[in-house]
Amino acid sequence: MNEPISISADFIDRHHRYAELIELLRRAFAESAVTIPDRLHYDFGSTAEKLNSTLLVMPAWQNGQDLGIKLVTINPENSAQDLPAIQGSYLLMDARTGVIRAMIEGTSLTRKRTAATSALAASYLADPAADSLLMIGTGALAPELIAAHASVRPIRRVYLWGRRPARARELARELTNDQYEVRPVEKIDSVIREVAVISTATLSAEPLVCGADLQPGQHLDLVGAYKPDMRESDDEAVRKAAIFVDTYTGAIQESGDLHIPLQKGVIQRDQVLAELSELCAGKHPGRSSAAEITLFKSVGYALEDLVAARYYHQKWDTLKPGEPKIGR
């Protein structure tokens, strides 16, 4: 029996293409052929004093094809040790035999499938002519979200805000390229009114995006705030927007961006208009007018992991003979 292969972060970075992964996700969401049990969510302590970290266990399978499971930890204090907050591993198996096909570095997989999912949603919800983006957050997801959005919309100007201005300046220099210029900003409200797309990827417990600042036609992509007591947008932002989610159950129950305004009565459940599978299957058209403010809230879905794992495994299988397969 063949030993399972090991797919590294370096391999993923070198062979990933957003346009390819986004289309695979579009097809998978539309077909809804993958079984997704409820994911397991546990809080634990990185120290003995406080339960400040999270363990996620995310299984998924398609009968007769693939079975996968992802283990992810989210440790907000990792930045103090210069480590990404999200750590993870993915196990891809043959659903017919249970044989392990691949062990995949889960942190890179998670970043790229998360960004690809945001871009997939933006392909239905953002202004087709959107050429500007405000990225709120300077963590490991920020470069991926910028690149993913720029793969579905003609982004030319990117503004980057982070709690550490020096980090924002450094990252802006690293990310500027021939397609788009990245400019650091010290205040969110200095540019938020003039951009077409706003993407947030933070671990903030307090709103960073205020509805008073949102302008007609903007698209708001909320990626952080993965717990019911965390939020990146305020009540007014949610009230003003046409709301879409990756999945109803996950986004409504797990993130404070929707859970809190629903509990307060600011919005009602029927104001969450569609989940991503309905957009991809053509059951909802997405953006309804040029002036509409759209909001997409994601918390992650195991279908995305399985699709990404298949994608990277197929990349491995189709490499030219002699090309190195394992990175650092």
Question: What does this 3D model show about the protein?
Answer:
The chain has 2 domains: 120 residues, ornithine cyclodeaminase, domain 1 (2-Layer Sandwich), CATH 3.30.1780; 175 residues, NAD(P)-binding Rossmann-like Domain (Rossmann fold), CATH 3.40.50. It is of the alpha/beta class and 328 residues long. The strands form 2 sheets. An 8-stranded parallel beta sheet has the order 9-8-7-10-11-14-12-13, sandwiched between helices. A 6-stranded mixed beta sheet has the order 1-6-5-4-3-2. Its EC number is 4.3.1.12. GO terms for molecular function: ornithine cyclodeaminase activity; oxidoreductase activity. This is Ornithine cyclodeaminase.
Element layout with pairings:
Layout: E1 5-7, H1 9-15, H2 18-31, E2 40-44, E3 53-61, E4 66-74, E5 86-94, E6 100-105, H3 106-125, E7 132-136, H4 141-152, E8 157-161, H5 165-175, E9 181-184, E10 197-200, E11 219-222, H6 235-240, E12 242-245, H7 248-254, H8 256-264, E13 272-275, H9 276-280, E14 294-297, H10 302-317
Parallel strand pairs: 1-6, 7-8, 7-10, 8-9, 10-11, 11-14, 12-13, 12-14
Antiparallel strand pairs: 2-3, 3-4, 4-5, 5-6
Summary?
This protein is an alpha/beta fold and 328 residues long.
List the defining traits of the structure above.
328 residues, alpha/beta, ornithine cyclodeaminase, domain 1, Rossmann fold, 2 domains, 8-stranded parallel sheet, 6-stranded mixed sheet, 10 helices, 14 strands, 23% strand, globular, oxidoreductase activity, ODC_N, Ornithine cyclodeaminase, EC 4.3.1.12
